[in-house]
Amino acid sequence: MSFWIFEEIAKGIQDDMSASIENYHSLFWNREAWDNTHRYLKCCGIKSAKDWTKYHVDIPKSCCSKPIEECLQMTEAVTYRTGCLRSAVLLLKSHVHTISMSALLIFLIILVSFLLVLCILSKMKRERIGQN
User: Fold this and answer.
1) Cα–Cα distance for residue pair 108/130, rounded to 1 Å
2) What is the pLDDT of residue 132?
């Protein structure tokens, strides 16, 4: 079941990347997100640098994997070879244990809080019945 959920999450990430790549030049926060992703994950595009040309967008300078003087003219030859989707999914997988343990802890805290509320309400009800 977790495999199915993880595949859905990966599909969602891919859909978000596809939608945002088209707005690379028009939205500042989009450009920042892509540039930071390229630099941090050392990747380019969704599956490869070809994604930028597929969406009729110039390859960003943040995809450059060579010395800056070689990247004055951005082509696929000077970009990172891997796409960002694969790197993002691998990063997510590396943190899945922490995320699931955090979710479990939060669930347990909520459950204990709910049980305490039930106990307090029960005690208040008994006290109210005892006063009558």
Assistant:
1) 33
2) 61
